[in-house]
Design brief:
Radius of gyration: 27 Å
Structural class: alpha/beta
Subunit structure: Homodimer.
Distance between the termini: 59 Å
Strand order of the largest sheet: 11-10-12-13-15-14-19
Helix content: 40-55%
Pfam family, one: DXP_synthase_N
Shape: globular
CATH architecture of the largest domain: 3-Layer(aba) Sandwich
Number of helices: 24
CATH class of the largest domain: Alpha Beta
Domain Transketolase-like pyrimidine-binding: 329-493
Pathway: Metabolic intermediate biosynthesis; 1-deoxy-D-xylulose 5-phosphate biosynthesis; 1-deoxy-D-xylulose 5-phosphate from D-glyceraldehyde 3-phosphate and pyruvate: step 1/1
Keywords: Isoprene biosynthesis, Magnesium, Metal-binding, Thiamine biosynthesis, Thiamine pyrophosphate, Transferase
Number of domains: 3
Strand content: 15-25%
CATH superfamily of the largest domain: Thiamin diphosphate (ThDP)-binding fold, Pyr/PP domains
Largest sheet: 7 strands, mixed
Amino acid sequence: MSQTPLLDTIDLPQDLRRLDTKQLPQLAAELRAFLLESVGKTGGHFASNLGAVELTVALHYVYHTPEDHLVWDVGHQSYPHKILTGRKNRMDTMRKYGGLAGFPKRGESAYDAFGVGHSSTSIGAALGMAVADKLAGKTSRSVAVIGDGAMTAGQAFEALNCAGDMDIDLLVILNDNEMSISPNVGALPKYLARNVVRDMHGLLSTIKAQSTKVLDKLPGALEIAQKVEHKIKAIAGEAEHAKQSLSLFENFGFHYTGPVDGHDVEQLVHVLKELRGKKGPQILHVITKKGQGYKLAENDPVKYHAVSTLSQEGGKETEKFPPKPAAKPTYTQIFGRWLCDQAAADPRLIAITPAMREGSGLVEYEQKFPDRYFDVGIAEQHAVTFAGGLACEGAKPVVAIYSTFLQRAYDQLIHDVALQNLPVLFAVDRAGIVGADGPTHAGLYDLSFLRCIPNMVVAAPSDENECRLLLSTCYRLDAPSAVRYPRGSGCGTAVSDGLETVPVGKGVVKREGSRTAVFAFGSMVQPALAAAETLNATVADMRFVKPIDEELIVRLAQTHDYLVTAEENAEQGGAGSAVLEVLAKHNICKPVLLLGVTDTVTEHGDPQRLLDDLGLSAAALAERIRNRFGPAE
């Protein structure tokens, strides 16, 4: 166990504020050591938290949280914040069922001013808090902490545009580490790039490498050299940085301060104390390093953005992860392989991702087809409209996007793609329960919000091979379409290496039974088949939610006494509702049991545990059907 004597005295921020500023570097070092140890055991977001340690300490030292409002953007960097706000002894429960959430959550702590999980919301939320406090006559301060990756999204600029034209006290901290999850793309990060500092990196690295052996032998010399290096970088970069960044933010009506070394906690405290007393919209530009203090994460922040766990040898963290059995290919990997194969067969295919290259399985595609790959940054709305424009001119765009992030581009999905009937394929990853990331990342609404849109074709594969088949099928359409698939692996079905298709809007009966018929969609087909074994029920893999197989629904409704629908989606307006609409259309009145996610906010934790709690595991499905319709005959 790491020795953290100073951190052990800190339970809440008021304890932190009793310290002398000279003690803060030690506290930051202990906090980083504790973070390495706790995340190493539990897993979770990693490099981003290491990079925000000093900033977090300084913010809670200067600002009177929770009366002052501290809003973290996305929340990947909120673990040090949780440790300093009364949750240190619960960090071993991070992202586990019933434990701490992986993101700020209002119901978890008064210090979590705003629940987050999606990008670029912090400025707007903090502005709302500042306005409300002003109207109520309060003197509380509001601070938004946003990364340079999140600053690329339009919502951040909408909030800046609004705030800069208001007489309101607001501090926006731009945490510039040149990264989001992947390296940043686009014009804004280049605008913010530390030109002078970057030019010096090679020289400074060379000097360090050549002199380390000597400095190691001189007591305190290496520490002095490191401080000198930080000062050189800060001084050399300040003029160029300020000149570039000043014009951008001043034109938005903000007073610009920076850049400031985000790992010099004493300097941060000094600057923040000055800014807390200033009036009007302020922006503080802080330079940090993702993965700070852990060389493996510093050198590869993409790989170490999030980790499962870390192993230790001799008290030092190593790059080794716990050995895992040979895994079945994930749906994301199935999509990535299909995409490469389809692109090789059709030069019109263009792949688009809103800053989720690794998560959406596009690494190999980018390497093979760089001219037909576009990472548009954290800009889901633009990604969809951009795809629409491509489709207008004969391209066949594929937008690789998580279900939870597709929600952010709903207007563009309707207005810019569907109403114009443009052939854009949406590969909707992470559909359904996602586990440790919790409700902000759960893909539980896409069937409901997609199937009501005109011209859309919506498919839900039941296994790995079905995923490839449905991707090929929807890609061939001259219409907008979506194939939604879950996180992780399927049931281990062998996958074709061809580009075969299936009839659009037609399901298949996977099991013949007697009195009960189950209409199962996507990830619920396998649990339904398992449940059907104990119920002697018929199971239909519906494949498509829209167009839905009316003929199959009517036929099974006429030959069975009881009907069941099963989907890993909200019950309201989902696939079950589509079945009910067909029954109503054909004047069929039979007992129907809808099985989906009820009107609730889901929790975080093990996906199988969550599915069981929601009544969607195989055993739970069988029990619910039996309770409603009685035992099998």
